[in-house]
C-alpha cells in the first residue's frame, strides 16, 4: 500500500515539475495535436478495426489461432458490423468507453467511462451465441512520448470473449499506427477487468455468512425472549443475557456521571475516541491517495500546507492508544496486587485478555478475507484498496497469535499490527508489574532505562539502515515501516511511558496535588508545546523543494517524538485528574464519549471495511479538497460506527459475557443494571468459584481494560 502511494506521489511530482516548465518547452503544437486525436479513443478504435480480419490478431506465424482467438475475433466482427448498421448494443459498447481525461495538467489521468453501461450489455445473437460486455481499465502510456512518466487510465469495453491479453494487443496495434510508439508492456490486465458475472461464494465465505446469520438470529431470539419472557430480569438465563441486544445496548449506552468512581479516569474516554477519529480520518486520506483524483496536483500541493501535518502525523493517535494501554494495565493491576499481596495469576490474565480480544478479530479476518471482495462492486475494486486481504489465506494465524508484526511481511489486516504490539507488551507486563511491586521506584527506574534503551535501538536502526521517514527522501520501503513502526521493540516507548506514568499515579493515589496558577499554565504550555511540536515541526521540511532532512535529523525527530508525545499526554491526564483540566477536562470527560469508547475496539477493526467499500464503488474521479475529505470522513465514520455497533452486539458482547461467565473468575462485563442483576451475578459467582482467589480479581480487572483498551 505504502509503495503504491509513493509511486503515485512521485508520478505526481513529475507532473508538477513538468507543468512548471516553461510552456514552450513543455509541448510542441504538433505533439499536442497528436494527443488531441485521442479525444475519442472509442471512435479511433472503431475506425481502426472497421474491417477486422484474422491478420489483426497479430499471431506469430509459428502458431495457429486457438479457440479463444477465433471467438474473440468473431465477437469483434459482430461488434464492428453491428456498429456499421447502428445496432444499439454495439453503440453502447463504444459509448461506455472513457476518453482522453479532461484537465490532464491538473493531474487528471483517469477517465473511467461508464462501467455499468458496459457490463450491462448482454446481446443474444442466436440460441447458443451470446455476447457480453467486459469492462477493463487500460493503462495507456500515451504521454511517454512527451516525457511524462504517467499512464493514462481509460475505461474500455469489449466483448467478454476477448482476454485482457487480446485487448492489450488490439490497443497496442492501434497506438502503434496512430502515434508510432512501440509498447512492450501489458496495457490491460485481467485483474482490472470485470463482467457482470459474479464470483461464486467459496466455502469459507458461506461459512462466514452462515455464522454471522446464526449470531444475528441468536441475537434476535434472545432479545425477543428478554422482552417477552423474562419480565423478571434476575431469572434470565446466561445465554439470553449474553445475546440480548437489549441488555448489551443498555450496558453500552449507560452513561456514568464523571467523577463518580475514583478509580476511573474519565478523560481517557475522550482521548480514546478522539484517537479513533484521528485514525479513521488519516486512513480516509490514504484511500484518497489511492483513488483516481481529478486534481492530483492539489494533493501534491496539499502536502506543503500546514494542515496536512495533522493528517500525515495521524500515527500519533496509535501512540496515544499505546500510552493508554500501558497506563491502564499498570493502574488496574497494581491496585489489585495490593489486595492480593503481590500475587499474579499470569496464565489467567493472559487467557482472559486473549478471549476478550480475539473473537471479534477472528470474525474480522473472515469478513475481510471472504466477504469484502464481494462488497463494493465497481471498476476500482482491485485498485482502491487499503490492503490486499487475500493474503489472509496464508497468514491469518499470525494475526490470531498476535505475532503478525514480526512473523510476516504480509500482515493479514495490516492495521492490526497495533494489536500485536499491545498484546506483546501485555504479555511482558507481569515482569514489569512484579518489578514495580517489589522494588518500587527502583523498578520504575529500571523500566525507564529500558525505555531509553529501546529508543536508542530505534535511533540506531534508523541511522544504520538509513530508513527515511519523509517521502522526499525517496521510496518509503515497506521494510522500514515494518522495522520502525510495526515492531514492538521500536514502538514500545509510548506504552512504557504510559506504564510509568500509571505507576506514578498509583503511587500518589491518595495525594492531592496543589499547584499554583503558574505551574498549571506552565504545565499546559509545555504539554501543548510537546504535542504541537511533534505534529508540526516537520512543516518547513515538507516543501517539496526544501533541502532534504539529514538522516540524523530524521532519526532524532522520529525517536524523540515517540517520547515527547506520550509525555505531553501525561500532563493532560494529570491535569484532568487533579482538576486543572478546565475546558479540556470537561470536553474529554464528557459522558457522551462513553458509548463510542466502548465500541472503539470494534470500530478500529472494522472501519476499513467501510472505507474500502465506499472507495471501490467510485464511478468517476474524485475531487480532492479538505472539505471533500471531511464529507467522506463523516460518511465512513457514521457507517463504521454502525457496523462496529452491530459487530459489538452480535460478536463482541456475547463472547465477552460468555467468556467472563465461563471463566473461573466472576463479574460479567456488562455491569449490573439493577439490584436484581447484582444478586444474579452473586449467585453465578457463588456457583462458579468456591473461593474467589484475589488473583482472579486482577485478571477480571485486566480483562475489563480490554474492552476499554482502544
Ligand atoms: C474498410 O473497408 C472499406 C470498404 O472496403 C474501406 O472504405 C475502408 O477504408 C476500410 N477501412 C480501413 C480502416 O481499412
Ligand atoms: C488471446 O488471449 C488468449 C488467452 O489469454 C491467449 O492465449 C491468446 O494468445 C491471445 N491471442 C492474441 C492474438 O493475443
From TrEMBL:
Task: Output the InterPro entries linked to this UniProt entry.
Answer: Acyl_transf_3_dom, Nose-resist-to-fluoxetine_N, O2_lipid_transport_reg
Q: Which GO terms describe its molecular function?
A: acyltransferase activity, transferring groups other than amino-acyl groups
The keyword Cell inner membrane is annotated on this UniProt entry: no
Q: Where is the Nose resistant-to-fluoxetine protein N-terminal domain?
A: 69-195
Q: Which Pfam families match?
A: Acyl_transf_3, NRF
The UniProt keyword set, sorted, is: Membrane, Signal, Transmembrane, Transmembrane helix
Membrane-crossing residues? 204-229, 285-303, 315-334, 354-375, 418-437, 443-463, 484-506, 518-539, 560-580, 592-610, 631-651
The region annotated as signal peptide is 1-18
UniProt protein name: GH18938
Amino acid at each position: 500500500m505504502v509503495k503504491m502511494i509513493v509511486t503515485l506521489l512521485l508520478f505526481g511530482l513529475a507532473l508538477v515539475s513538468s507543468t512548471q516548465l516553461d510552456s514552450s518547452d513543455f509541448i510542441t503544437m504538433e505533439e499536442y495535436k497528436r494527443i488531441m486525436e485521442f479525444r475519442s479513443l472509442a471512435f479511433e478504435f472503431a475506425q481502426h478495426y472497421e474491417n477486422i480480419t484474422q491478420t489483426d490478431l497479430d499471431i506469430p506465424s509459428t502458431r495457429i489461432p486457438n479457440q479463444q482467438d477465433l471467438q474473440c475475433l468473431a465477437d469483434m466482427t459482430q461488434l464492428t458490423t453491428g456498429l456499421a448498421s447502428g445496432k444499439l448494443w454495439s453503440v453502447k459498447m463504444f459509448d461506455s468507453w472513457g476518453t482522453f481525461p479532461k484537465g490532464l495538467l491538473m493531474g487528471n489521468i483517469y477517465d473511467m467511462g461508464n462501467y455499468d453501461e458496459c457490463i450491462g450489455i448482454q446481446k443474444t445473437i442466436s440460441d447458443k451465441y451470446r455476447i457480453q460486455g467486459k469492462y477493463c481499465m487500460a493503462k495507456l502510456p500515451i504521454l511517454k512520448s512527451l516525457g511524462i512518466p504517467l499512464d493514462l487510465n481509460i475505461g474500455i469495453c469489449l466483448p467478454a470473449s476477448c482476454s485482457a491479453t487480446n485487448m492489450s494487443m488490439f490497443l497496442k496495434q492501434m497506438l502503434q499506427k496512430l502515434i508510432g510508439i512501440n509498447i512492450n508492456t501489458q496495457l490491460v490486465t485481467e485483474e482490472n477487468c470485470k463482467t457482470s458475472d459474479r464470483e461464486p461464494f467459496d466455502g469459507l465465505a458461506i461459512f462466514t455468512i452462515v455464522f454471522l446469520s446464526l449470531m444475528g438470529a441468536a441475537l434476535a431470539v434472545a432479545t425477543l425472549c428478554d422482552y417477552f419472557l423474562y419480565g423478571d430480569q434476575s431469572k434470565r438465563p446466561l445465554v439470553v443475557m449474553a445475546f440480548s441486544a437489549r441488555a448489551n445496548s443498555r450496558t453500552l449506552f449507560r452513561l456514568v456521571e464523571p467523577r463518580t468512581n475514583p478509580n476511573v479516569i474519565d478523560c481517557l474516554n475522550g482521548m480514546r475516541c478522539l484517537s479513533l477519529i484521528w485514525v479513521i480520518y488519516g486512513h480516509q486520506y490514504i484511500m484518497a491517495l489511492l483513488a483516481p483524483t481529478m486534481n492530483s496536483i492539489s494533493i501534491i500541493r496539499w502536502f506543503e500546507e500546514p494542515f496536512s501535518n495533522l493528517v500525515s502525523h495521524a500515527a500519533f493517535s496509535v501512540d496515544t492508544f499505546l500510552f493508554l494501554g500501558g497506563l491502564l494495565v499498570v493502574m488496574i493491576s497494581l491496585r489489585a496486587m495490593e489486595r492480593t499481596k503481590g500475587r499474579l495469576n499470569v496464565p489467567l490474565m493472559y487467557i482472559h485478555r486473549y478471549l476478550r480480544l480475539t473473537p471479534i478479530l477472528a470474525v474480522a479476518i473472515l469478513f475481510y478475507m471472504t466477504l469484502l471482495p464481494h462488497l463494493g462492486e465497481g471498476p476500482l475494486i482491485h485498485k482502491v484498496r487499503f490492503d490486499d486481504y487475500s493474503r489472509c489465506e496464508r497468514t491469518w494465524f499470525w494475526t490470531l497469535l498476535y505475532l503478525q508484526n514480526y512473523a510476516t511481511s504480509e500482515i493479514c489486516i495490516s492495521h492490526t499490527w497495533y494489536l500485536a504490539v499491545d498484546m506483546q507488551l501485555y504479555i511482558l507486563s507481569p515482569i514489569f508489574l512484579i518489578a514495580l511491586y517489589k522494588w518500587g521506584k527502583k523498578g520504575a527506574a529500571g523500566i525507564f532505562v529500558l525505555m531509553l534503551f529501546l529508543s536508542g535501538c530505534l535511533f540506531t536502526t534508523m541511522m544504520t539502515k538509513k530508513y527515511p521517514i519523509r517521502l522526499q527522501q525517496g521510496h518509503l520501503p515497506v521494510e522500514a515501516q515494518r522495522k520502525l513502526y510495526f515492531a514492538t521493540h521500536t514502538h514500545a516507548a509510548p506504552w512504557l511511558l504510559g506504564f510509568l506514568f500509571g505507576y506514578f499515579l498509583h503511587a500518589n493515589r491518595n495525594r492531592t496535588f496543589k499547584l499554583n496558577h503558574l505551574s498549571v499554565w506552565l504545565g499546559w504550555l509545555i504539554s501543548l508545546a510537546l504535542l504541537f511540536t511533534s505534529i508540526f515541526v516537520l512543516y518547513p521540511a515538507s516543501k517539496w523543494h526544501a533541502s532534504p532532512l539529514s538522516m540524523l535529523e530524521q532519526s532524532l525527530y522520529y525517536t524523540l517524538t515517540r517520547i515527547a508525545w506520550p509525555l505531553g499526554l501525561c500532563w493532560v491526564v494529570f491535569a484532568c485528574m487533579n482538576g486543572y483540566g478546565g475546558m479540556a477536562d470537561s470536553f474529554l470527560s464528557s459522558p457522551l464519549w462513553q458509548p463510542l469508547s466502548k465500541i472503539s475496539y470494534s470500530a478500529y477493526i472494522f472501519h476499513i471495511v467501510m472505507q474500502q467499500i465506499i472507495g471501490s464503488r467510485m464511478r468517476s474521479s474524485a475531487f480532492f479538497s479538505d472539505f471533500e475529505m471531511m464529507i467522506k470522513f463523516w460518511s465512513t465514520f457514521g457507517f463504521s460506527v454502525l457496523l462496529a455497533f452491530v459487530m459489538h452486539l452480535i460478536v463482541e458482547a456475547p463472547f465477552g459475557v460468555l467468556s467472563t461467565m465461563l471463566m473461573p473468575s466472576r463479574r460479567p462485563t456488562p455491569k449490573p443494571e439493577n439490584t436484581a442483576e447484582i444478586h444474579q451475578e452473586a449467585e453465578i459467582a457463588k456457583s462458579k468459584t468456591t473461593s474467589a482467589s484475589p488473583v482472579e480479581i486482577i485478571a477480571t480487572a485486566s480483562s475489563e481494560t480490554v474492552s476499554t483498551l482502544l
